[in-house]
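Ops channel
N.P.: pipeline sanity check, posting one input/output pair.
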């Protein structure tokens, strides 16, 4: 079916049919399970690339002389100004596929030296919310998250770079918390999934409706649970702390490199250590690695240096629900050669790699002493926290992903 979509796109380019070029590109991207479409002007041609499972993939090129018509068509369907090419623009539109799926598309234009670059983010509005185990959480990590979201108050933070699945994790938690006895408010930019039972609000920074403003308003709405799309500034974290200390459960994301690094970032934002230890329940750092195709994956022996790296990294991990140490005795990793099921990529979908730090008494005492992050990391590992790399290696040994993907995701 995908090859048919590609053929239709090729024929539309040859015929110069601009509306069909745009619609077939979107249709093919959906068929490929792409999250983004990049339309990129180069010196002599225009390149179209799709981001599939977090990695950009070259799809096709078309002549540069029809690019103005293609960008105008995309701007028309997303209510952007077609005569404005000097500054970036943002818009959105919705399309309904042949199989009745509603797709929300966020569109961003950017002037470059070769012409306008267009990026389209695709969001399937009918997509079901994955449960926490479907994200890659299992064993002790899953139990920690389940315990955190059952607490009546406090802050749970999810951290990681853009595109690491933070929003999916928050929605999975909210899906479990969604109960008619609770008033759940969310403040998002944008609202990515519409979920019955939640009061979801789209912030609009351009008119002063920021995360901080929404969070302050939420406290007058008799909430039980509040989800804030992202903590970006001191004002937002201060209000979140106040909400947590007055009996509310607050879930949010923040951009840092690790769970421990989040504590340092919040301290830098001006929050006093005693407020951090009183309000934050736990921090989950995550990355996404491509999931091996189950149809064509095969065992492989790691090279000596990789085997040594794996053994050293997992040397401290005890035998238990998270890790069977027998896997180290006869070390096997997995690779995939590609098959029609996975479009010959060797991968299909993605799996989360996690580290979860709980605000224990030991961690709290170190925070109150303003201890450096390496001391906090040592304490967290003593208390049983798997690091991102350890969790990734364990998933690689279980055949969920490859060692190379773990390197890429956690570097």
């Amino acid at each position: 079916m995908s090859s048919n979509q590609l053929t239709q796109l090729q024929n539309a380019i040859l015929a110069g049919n601009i509306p069909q070029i745009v619609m077939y590109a979107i249709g093919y991207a959906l068929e490929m399970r792409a999250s983004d479409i990049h339309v990129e002007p180069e010196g002599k041609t225009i390149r179209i690339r799709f981001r599939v499972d977090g990695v950009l993939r070259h799809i096709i090129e078309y002549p540069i002389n029809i690019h103005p018509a293609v960008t105008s068509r995309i701007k028309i369907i997303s209510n952007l100004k077609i005569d404005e090419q000097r500054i970036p623009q943002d818009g959105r539109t919705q399309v309904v596929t042949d199989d009745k799926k509603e797709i929300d598309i966020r569109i961003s234009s950017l002037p470059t030296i070769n012409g306008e670059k267009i990026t389209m983010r695709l969001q399937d509005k009918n997509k079901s919310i994955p449960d926490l185990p479907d994200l890659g959480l299992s064993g002790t990590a899953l139990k920690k998250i389940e315990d955190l979201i059952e607490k009546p108050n406090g802050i749970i933070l999810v951290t990681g770079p853009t595109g690491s699945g933070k929003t999916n994790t928050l929605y999975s938690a909210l899906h479990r918390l969604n109960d008619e006895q609770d008033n759940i408010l969310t403040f998002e930019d944008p609202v990515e999934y519409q979920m019955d039972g939640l009061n979801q609000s789209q912030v609009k920074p351009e008119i002063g409706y920021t995360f901080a403003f929404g969070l302050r308003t939420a406290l007058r709405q008799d909430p039980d649970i509040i989800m804030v799309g992202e903590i970006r500034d001191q004002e937002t974290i201060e209000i979140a702390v106040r909400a947590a200390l007055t009996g509310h459960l607050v879930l949010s994301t923040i951009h840092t490199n690790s769970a421990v690094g989040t504590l340092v970032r919040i301290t830098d934002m001006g929050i006093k250590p005693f407020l951090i230890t009183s309000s934050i329940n736990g921090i989950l750092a995550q990355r996404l690695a491509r999931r091996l195709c189950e149809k064509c994956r095969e065992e492989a022996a790691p090279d000596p240096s990789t085997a040594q790296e794996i053994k050293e990294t997992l040397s401290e991990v005890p035998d238990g629900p998270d890790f069977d140490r027998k896997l180290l005795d006869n070390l096997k990793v997995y690779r995939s050669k590609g098959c029609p099921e996975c479009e010959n990529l060797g991968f299909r979908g993605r799996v989360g790699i996690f580290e979860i730090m709980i605000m224990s008494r030991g961690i709290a005492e170190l925070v109150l002493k303003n201890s450096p992050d390496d001391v906090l990391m040592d304490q967290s590992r003593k208390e049983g926290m798997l690091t991102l790399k350890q969790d990734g290696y364990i998933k690689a040994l279980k055949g969920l992903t490859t060692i190379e993907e773990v390197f890429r995701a956690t570097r």
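N.P.: looks fine end to end. Residues 308 and 324 are 17 Å apart (CA to CA).
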